[in-house]
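Following up on my earlier thread - several people asked me to post the actual chain instead of describing it. Fair enough. Here it is, all 451 residues.
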Amino acid sequence: KLYDVKNFVDWFIKNSDLKYSLIGYVSDNGKILYDSDRKTENILAPTYSEKLEIAQSFSKDTKDLGLKIKTLTNGEVLIFFNRAIRMRDIKGSVFGAIPLSQLAEVELNEHTDLFIANRDTKNLLYSSNSDYSRDSLKKKSIQANYMFVERDIDNPRWTISVTINTAPYLEEPKKAGIITLVVSIFFVFICSGIIMSLLNSTKKHNEQMEAELKTAHDMQMNLMPDKSPNLNQLNISGLCRPATEVGGDFFQYYPKDDGRFAFVIADVTGHGMKAAIPTVLFSGILDNQMEIGVETDKLFDKLNKSLCRKLKDRTFVCCAFGEIDTENMSLRFTNGGCPYPYHYKNSTQTTEEIILDALPLGVRDRTEYSFLDCKLEQGDKMVFCSDGIIESQNEKEEVLGFDKTRHIVNRLATSNVSAPDIVSGIMQEVDIFRGSAEQDDDQTVVVIEVL
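Reply from S.P.:
Thanks for posting it. Predicted structure:
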């Protein structure tokens, strides 16, 4: 398990846009399982440093996601972050430290404030001045004496904002300010025709972009089923809700001539067009493999090697695949990076996770993928969710999580509703939990019911 943690931390470093001063993994009981400060190949050897002690203390006090800024004794200013991440049967958090100078070339003082926000939810993750909320920050940034600068980064998806009070630095007399105002008004008057022309051009461009995105959305939706397959012993339903016009989630069904039925649910890293194009690529490769009849046990190995050749760094595909033998109602299942599916057993009216995982497709060409076989009984239900369901956040940045999702699945399954009703019920529960917060990730649910 510790080597899994080490491999995960190493992969996290490789696929990040930032250079970490420190990164590691700490269990829920506060024990550091691995960190990048280790000077030995023995991952069981203890390590110590000032920044490691700060990160460990911070992780104990933070349940899901947290940020704080600390100055070390050597004067270095670091941004410490902590994010709860579940890995196999280990529960803990990834922690890290990033030099402030990487994100903002600015000296924090009494005239300067730093703010870090989630790019997708717009929620404020860190503020160097606790007196300001998001609304007051916006009002403050438009005041005459304040300068507001902003920078977006992709991994992690943060917006870095710096607000500077320029009044203490302005020493020119008021007369200079009046002259500047007159010149500015004259400039706006002279350029008004050019500005209106640019606005009209931008409007036409935006309308064209919206039309193209609508076309891309329709094309991507056509890659997924628009109706459920007609099978005597199974009732199947699925739904994909992209966070934007296009996204990285995907599901599909593959009925076979010998009475077996295959299905897949996948999630490409990223959002929007960046994820949509690899999704189309993956769909084509998968369709080709299914068309030529690749054996189930060899499918993931072939897909993984193809994607390792085709995909760029930091782009990979989380994928869960199952095949049901409808004669004896047995499921053969494999998983590469997707959330564990839920198996509702009608005989006991309980819901359990099918725990099986491996690295996502496209990460490493030598990854081995194992399969799990389980028996399905009449009334059983299998529920597959993408991480956009599990990791849905509300206005307080609370995460829905695995346990709440399992309770939702169990409550809906025991109420004796059909597969389509379970799909719509899960989506409705996610919307209720999210409240007024924006949907920040694609959301997909597939339900298989044994009749």
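The two ends are 39 Å apart (CA to CA). That should answer part of your original question.
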